[in-house]
Amino acid sequence: MSKNIKLMQGNEAVAEGAIIAGCDFFAGYPITPSSEVAEFLSSKLPKIGKVFLQMEDEIAALGAVLGAALGGAKAITATSGPGMSLKQENIGYASMCEIPCVIVNVMRGGPSTGLPTLPSQSDIMQAKWGTHGDHAIIAITPSSVNESLYETIRAFNLAVKYRTPVLLLTDEIIGHMREKVVIPDKSEVEIIDLKLPDVPPEKYNPYNYTSGKVTPLAPMGEGYRYHVTGLIHGETGFPSQKTDVIQNAENWLIDKIYKNIKDIEKFEEFMTGDADILVVAYGSTSRSVRQAISMARAAGIKVGMFRPITIWPFPEEQISNLSKKIKKVLVVEMNMGQIILEVQRAACGSKVYGLHVTNGEPITPDQIFAKIKEVSEN
Amino acid sequence: MIKTKFNYDYYLRKNTLPHIWCPGCGDGIILKALLRAIHKCGYSKDEVVITSGIGCASRLPGYVDFNTIHTTHGRALTFAIGIKMYKPKLKVITISGDGDALAIGGNHFIHAARRNIDMTLIVFNNYTYGMTGGQYSPTQPLDSFATTTPFGSIEPPFDVCNLAQAAGATWVGRSTSYHAVQLEKFMVDALTHTGFSVLDVITNCHISYGRRNKMKSPVEMIKYQKEKAIPARSAENMSPEELTGRFKTGVLFETKDNPEFCSEYHKKLELLKTK
Q1: Considering the domain B8-274 in this protein, what is its CATH number?
Q2: Do B83 and A67 touch (CB under 8 A)?
Q3: Fewer CB atoms near the end CB (10 Å): N or C, chain B?
Q4: What Pfam families does this protein's entry cite (chain A) (predicted)?
Q5: d(CA B173, nearest CA chain A) in Å
């Protein structure tokens, strides 16, 4: 069977992935460098009978996505930088009310308006902690255009499976570069669809905090009438201030993600078998690291890479295990030091070094190779 | 349209009662009018979606047996647009207070009106942020008092209806929680109108607003509603001086000429299908 291969932009690959995943609804607001996701979907979705909306602001965009998702839509929005800050309120709502949706953040430099047209990876901690209150989140960091397509599909699947917002964190480099993409047929990829509850409406509770299983979200308008509120609620969906209900609800939001970490996690190990130095990198930065590793290997330094693809929940166990045999760990990221904090926590037996560049340019293989040499001599 | 005898119990989620509203609050009167109006329209409980934001009024959806979404502060219309666009057959109603609809949600208010999407917004307009203890709202009358205007308000208030009409709403009306019969009638009008309908309902918060403005009992506030309301037709013959401190009630604007957003979008999808 001949493969369907296309040259595509990263943002286009996200749009393509969304459509393969069965996306019914997009609402967004223009912002660089993510706007092409909206542009591509504005021409594709109406042609297949789906909804595209450009809303009045970023908050409205996610609000509309959540409204559609409660109606049973597979829904997505895309944004960047300041737009991501505005979305935080409704990300909290989606977490609390367990509404599946995909939120793409094509990361650019910040804080504030920052560097609209230049890349960064400085929204990693915001992805986890950006909204108020305790909750867990799933965030994914693809490192190529091809991976952007497949990880968008996976983001939709995880959103449905765990009834949670899933963040897809690309960056300006991945979003705007063009690469080869192998477009799969729908039959070649796993697609998880929303399912109706297996109980009749009168027995349906929209939440379940104790069985360990995620209750299917009944699409509104199909006979399952229930209440959704951002207030802490019990299993019936109605607000509660009972201490046990509150604690169960809080535990559940964390447990449903962390107790399923084996299903959610995804990572790549590259030449770690004999490595004396482990580089941890994700997203576009991992591409420079790969080149730096060849340079280091040619110079006789044994270096490998661990690349989280699911970055939240953080692959703590893998880092911890690797750090038992690799005593030097270097974290390379386009921010002033974010995921390094997680690595330090997980790799407590090892010395952890950081290379953090936020000058609007990608971190080059030369810069990384120089840092590897420094670490190896240390 | 009406198939069965009306019964409040059929529409209420009695296990969620009593409600959180203070004794004498006007919100309960509006809730009851809404249930009667929905019944008159003949909608099934499954086809009605009610979204709300944050505040006293926005607790309404919890008490009524429809598909109900109590969203984030000011954002109820955005959720409503999402579900309406995805499932156009649903009857979507948004409940909002004056602060929720016009301050934090002002942007969504004008854009929902501009799109003329087929939904109904009911503003429970009590001139105050009741739930947070009576701070001044964007509809609070000039020179009146709130916990954050201890020396009298110097901010001109929004006229909800003028704003809605200017922004593009195609059905605009105003009533009060005193005029319970008229309120129900206007709700039926608003719900059955095709396009974005905005019903401004002047209601009483004697606890947070009235108490600071010489109307500390529900009775005084209801008298205020009765005396200050002036039917739009009567207002036509009155001078600006005579209208000072009063508000017009009635169906203030209605047009069927403007395209409705949701059906326009879905018409376009049909066109694309045949291409």
Answers
A1: 3.40.50.970
A2: yes
A3: C
A4: PFOR_II, POR_N
A5: 25
The model's pTM is 0.98
Using the Cβ of A101 and the Cβ atoms of chain B, whether some distance falls under 8 Å is answered with: no
Q: Which of B10, B17, B9 is nearest to B45 (CA)?
A: B10
- Record: contact A220-B45, CB cut-off 8 A: no
User: Quick one: CA dihedral B208, B214, B219, B221, positive or negative?
Assistant: negative
Q: What residues of B are in the A interface, CB distance below 8 Å?
A: 13, 16, 45-47, 49, 51, 61-62, 65-72, 75, 77-87, 89-90, 107-108, 111, 265, 268-269, 272-273
Task: Give chain A positions within 8 Å (CB) of B267.
Answer: none
**Digit-coded pLDDT (tens) for A335-378:** 999 999 999 999 988 999 999 999 999 999 999 999 999 999 98
- CATH class as words, domain A5-182: alpha beta
B44–chain A nearest CA distance, Å: 10
What band does A321 get if pLDDT is binned at 50, 70 and 90?
A: very high
- Say yes or no to pLDDT of A278 above 90: yes
CB count, 10 Å around CB of A359?
11
User: How many Cβ contacts (< 8 angstroms) between chains A and B?
Assistant: 135
**CATH number, domain A267-377, options 3.10.25.10, 3.40.640.10, 3.40.47.10, 3.40.50.920:** 3.40.50.920
CB contacts under 8 A, A 319-338 vs B, are: none
pLDDT in tens, A207-239: 999 888 999 999 999 999 999 999 999 999 999
pLDDT above 70 (res A245): yes
Exposed/middle/buried for A136, CB within 10 Å: 0-12, 13-18, 19+? buried
Number of C-beta neighbours around residue A341 at 10 A:
15
pLDDT, chain B, mean: 97
A171 pLDDT more than 70: yes
Contact B70 A93 (CB under 8 A): no
* Interface residue A42 vs chain B (CB under 8 A): no
Residues from chain B that touch A226, judged by Cβ atoms under 8 A, are 67-68
Q: Please state, in angstroms and rounded to a whole number, the distance separating the CA atoms of residues A206 and B209.
A: 37
What residues does each domain of chain B span?
A: 8-274
- A1 pLDDT band, cuts 50/70/90, is low
